[in-house]
């Protein structure tokens, strides 16, 4: 029978091979990689300690510091005693249980969803979990990756397994080549705009189509990262030559004969011709324009040249209600042009868009002008490796010269668990993935955009169509 990529990974990981792979079936699955950070691991470690248990597979578990760290200083007490305690607790727990930790200042430190791929820890066909909702990022490698709660973190620590319910499968096809100036971020925002922020609830999404196949690994990670913002359990992209080229030679990738054997296995990790999906959604890449969220969920999104909608534009009463609330919170008027909307903050970073390619795209715009008066713009690479690469390319100099701040890696203003917090009434063009009320600070207003769009907003002081900037500025 023709099966999907999701079915194949499920079947390869259910411990009892008699487990059904029908939607809704329950199975105990083996977990290949467990990633942890300072926020969701302490209670799980405490639970283990209470029961006198050990971490079953410390060699499959990797830790980093990302949420509670400063982007201005490497000192773990730079953001106060509570953050320091959280970070020190992670260090103590990793030491006690023999888990590799990449702390602040370490060459391999980065946001948890990036650290794994950069090291070659995430490979096609694996199951990957982390106590963090954006774990779906790793699906870009054709691995089944999803966020888990703290009690599940404890379960994985103790047993390296997890009870799971087989989700439904959704195929999202993005047909045709991507137009110039349109990025992976615009693709995923357009998808969420089409299906809604809960449109994939109960599903694992597989992304395919010409526009997806043409993406780099890092762009694929951007797409999969936001699967959760459509409500999906996970996002997947079948591995191909782009995946193998990215992985080859990375620290934890298989080597020699093991590499050849792995690639042979990975090549089979595709949905079979004729595999049945529970839902199929199609988009034409040519129709995608630079996206900007206007509301307070990532599905409330429009093209940069589309006027702000009115609640009455929506047919569903729930969407209408949510639009009324969002317009009020965001202080927007129906019909308003985004190009007339001033921003006073710009954040370029996060696990969605802190990649080297993002730094390059933003720098290509930044070199065309200066940050507008009254705008604070910060650029936060998502890992030490990206920071160093960007500095080797002198992108930091371009940003600083244009009036942006160049910071140390971490989650930063994506959710402000450090001191990168917006004030009441601030309006921010942000490359992160969530625009909920108060996400970047109480009363602050977040508009999700691509890195190039964020940089353009920084220079203009309001939203601007990145396609109006000179394309050859990237040279
Ligand atoms: C702090 C963490 C548990 C949280 C998540 O699960 O996603 C954070 O990363 C976020 O983006 O809101
Ligand atoms: S960058 Fe944002 S979304 Fe990503 S892990 Fe950190 S807080 Fe969560």
Automatic annotation (TrEMBL):
The reaction(s) this protein catalyses: (2R,3S)-3-isopropylmalate = (2S)-2-isopropylmalate
Superkingdom of source: Bacteria
Molecular function GO labels: 3-isopropylmalate dehydratase activity
Enzyme superclass (EC): lyase
Keyword Amino-acid biosynthesis: yes
Pfam families the UniProt entry points to: Aconitase
Cofactor binding note from Swiss-Prot or TrEMBL: Binds 1 [4Fe-4S] cluster per subunit.
Keyword Transport attributed: no
Record domain Aconitase/3-isopropylmalate dehydratase large subunit alpha/beta/alpha: where: 7-461
Cofactor: [4Fe-4S] cluster
Keywords attached to this entry: 4Fe-4S, Amino-acid biosynthesis, Branched-chain amino acid biosynthesis, Iron, Iron-sulfur, Leucine biosynthesis, Lyase, Metal-binding
SUPFAM superfamilies listed in its UniProt record: Aconitase iron-sulfur domain (SSF53732)
InterPro entries for this protein: 3-IsopropMal_deHydase_lsu (IPR004430), Acnase/IPM_dHydase_lsu_aba_1/3 (IPR015931), Acoase/IPM_deHydtase_lsu_aba (IPR001030), Aconitase_4Fe-4S_BS (IPR018136), Aconitase_4Fe-4S_dom (IPR036008), IPM_dehydratase_rel_enz (IPR050067), IPMI_cat (IPR033941)
Pathways involved: Amino-acid biosynthesis; L-leucine biosynthesis; L-leucine from 3-methyl-2-oxobutanoate: step 2/4
EC number(s) from the headed UniProt entry: 4.2.1.33
Residue positions binding [4Fe-4S] cluster: 351, 411, 414
Purpose of the protein: Catalyzes the isomerization between 2-isopropylmalate and 3-isopropylmalate, via the formation of 2-isopropylmaleate.
Family, as annotated: Belongs to the aconitase/IPM isomerase family. LeuC type 1 subfamily.
Record HAMAP family: LeuC_type1
Description of how the protein assembles with itself and partners: Heterodimer of LeuC and LeuD.
Name of the protein in question: 3-isopropylmalate dehydratase large subunit
Naturally occurring in which organism (per UniProt): Paraglaciecola aquimarina
Gene: leuC
């Amino acid at each position: 029978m023709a099966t999907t990529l999701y079915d194949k990974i499920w079947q390869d990981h259910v411990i009892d091979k008699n487990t059904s792979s029908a939607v809704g079936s329950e199975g105990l699955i083996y977990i290949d990689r467990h990633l942890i950070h300072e926020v969701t691991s302490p209670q799980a470690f405490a639970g283990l300690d209470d029961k006198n248990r050990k971490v079953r597979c410390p060699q499959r578990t990797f830790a980093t510091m990302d949420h509670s760290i400063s982007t201005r200083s490497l000192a773990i007490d730079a953001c106060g005693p509570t953050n320091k305690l959280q970070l020190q607790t992670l260090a103590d727990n990793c030491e006690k249980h023999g888990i590799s930790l990449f702390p602040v200042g370490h060459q391999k430190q980065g946001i948890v969803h990036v650290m794994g791929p950069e090291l070659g820890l995430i490979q096609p066909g694996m199951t990957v979990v982390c106590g963090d909702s954006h774990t779906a990022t790793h699906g870009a490698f054709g691995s089944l990756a999803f966020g888990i709660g703290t009690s599940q973190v404890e379960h994985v620590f103790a047993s390296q397994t997890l009870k799971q319910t087989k989700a439904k499968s959704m195929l999202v096809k993005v047909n045709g080549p991507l137009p110039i100036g349109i990025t992976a971020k615009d693709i995923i925002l357009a998808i969420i705009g089409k299906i809604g922020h809960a449109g994939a609830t109960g599903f694992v999404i597989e992304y395919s189509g010409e526009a997806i196949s043409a993406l780099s690994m890092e762009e694929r990670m951007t797409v999969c990262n936001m699967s959760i913002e459509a409500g999906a359990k996970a996002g997947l992209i079948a591995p191909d030559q782009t995946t193998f080229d990215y992985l080859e030679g990375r620290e934890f990738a298989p080597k020699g004969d093991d590499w050849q054997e792995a690639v042979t296995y990975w090549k089979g990790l595709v949905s079979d011709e004729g595999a049945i999906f529970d839902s199929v959604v199609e988009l034409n890449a040519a129709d995608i324009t630079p996206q900007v969220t206007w509301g307070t969920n990532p599905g409330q999104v429009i093209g940069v040249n589309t006027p702000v909608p009115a609640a009455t534009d929506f047919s569903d009463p729930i969407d209408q209600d949510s639009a009324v609330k969002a317009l009020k919170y965001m202080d927007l008027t129906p019909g308003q042009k985004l190009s007339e909307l001033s921003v006073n903050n710009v954040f370029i970073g996060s696990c969605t868009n802190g990649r080297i390619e993002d730094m390059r795209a933003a720098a290509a715009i930044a070199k065309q002008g200066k940050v507008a008066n009254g705008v604070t713009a910060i650029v936060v690479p998502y890992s030490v490796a990206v920071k160093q690469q960007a500095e080797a390319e002198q992108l930091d100099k371009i940003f600083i010269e244009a009036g942006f701040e160049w910071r140390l890696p971490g989650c930063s203003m994506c959710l402000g668990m450090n001191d990168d917090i917006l004030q009441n009434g601030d309006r921010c063009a942000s490359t992160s993935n969530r625009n909920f009320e108060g996400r970047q600070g109480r009363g602050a207003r977040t508009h999700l955009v691509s890195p190039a769009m964020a940089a353009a907003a920084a220079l203009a002081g309001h939203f601007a169509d990145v396609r109006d900037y000179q394309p050859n500025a990237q040279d």
